[in-house]
Amino acid sequence: MLGILLYEDNDSLRESLVNLLALSRDFLLLGHYPRAVGVVKQVTELKPDVILMDIDMPGINGIEAVKQVRTVDKRVQILMLTVFDDNRHVLDAICAGASGYLLKKHLSDHLSDAIRQVMQGEAPMSPGVARMIVQSMQEQAAQPARAVVDYGLTNREKEILAQLSKGKGLKIIAADLSISIDTVRTHIKNIYEKLQVHSQAEAVSKALNDGLV
């Protein structure tokens, strides 16, 4: 059973999410809060597997909360919940250490699957978000080339990292490269170790920042 922490300042939406999570035997809601002021203490004490984090909260917003969480826990998976779908919020959340990103209008249909996906090493996000990340990559590619940092990635690992950076899931990557999903997972594990990251979103962020893709 996966331990979940929920941060959402909208009372009705938070209650709906509490009820939604309660319907699954796979999830255990460890706590739910309208603010993120105590996030470091709560994460340290409750040790969740997944955090559902509203991006727009008074006081400490979701992006700042993610930064604080990452100072004490690199392992926990963090899914951002937001009504925003603009490029700045998407990239800020990923660069802060978010593991995935979902628009609130998609929660009732996709939340459970997104939690399972993020625990399998994928980076769930709505199609519009994935398109914006690709667009950002294309804009960066048009800028003057930077020196590429050598992390010792193999050609296959670079190929898979490029696929991840385009928002592709493990099944699609496996099909595109004619290899098994388990082989893809093994390559991703090696990529994480070489880049010293803990999630697909962190790997993509590092790949973008260091010119790997």
The fourth-level CATH homologous superfamily of the largest domain is: Response regulator
Number of helices: 10
CATH class of the largest domain: Alpha Beta
Query: Beta-sheet strand percentage?
Result: 5-15%
Write the H/E string, N to C: EHEHEHEHEHHHHHH
Report on this model:
With 213 residues, the protein is α/β, with parallel strands linked by helices. It folds into two domains: 2-128, Response regulator (Rossmann fold, 3-Layer(aba) Sandwich); 146-209, Winged helix-like DNA-binding domain superfamily/Winged helix DNA-binding domain (Arc Repressor Mutant, subunit A), CATH 1.10.10. It is 53% helix and 13% strand. The protein has ten helices and five strands; from the N terminus they run βαβαβαβαβαααααα. It has a five-stranded parallel beta sheet, with helices on both faces. α2 packs across α3 (62-72). The longest helix has 15 residues, at 127-141. The mean pLDDT is 86.
Which helices and strands appear, and what pairs or packs with what?
Layout lengths: L1 E6 L3 H12 L4 E7 L5 H8 L3 E5 L7 H11 L4 E6 L4 H10 L3 E4 L3 H13 L7 H15 L13 H11 L4 H8 L3 H15 L4 H10 L4
Parallel strand pairs: 1-2, 1-3, 3-4, 4-5
Question: Which properties best describe this structure?
Answer:
Arc Repressor Mutant, subunit A, five-stranded parallel sheet, 2 domains, 213 residues, Rossmann fold, alpha/beta
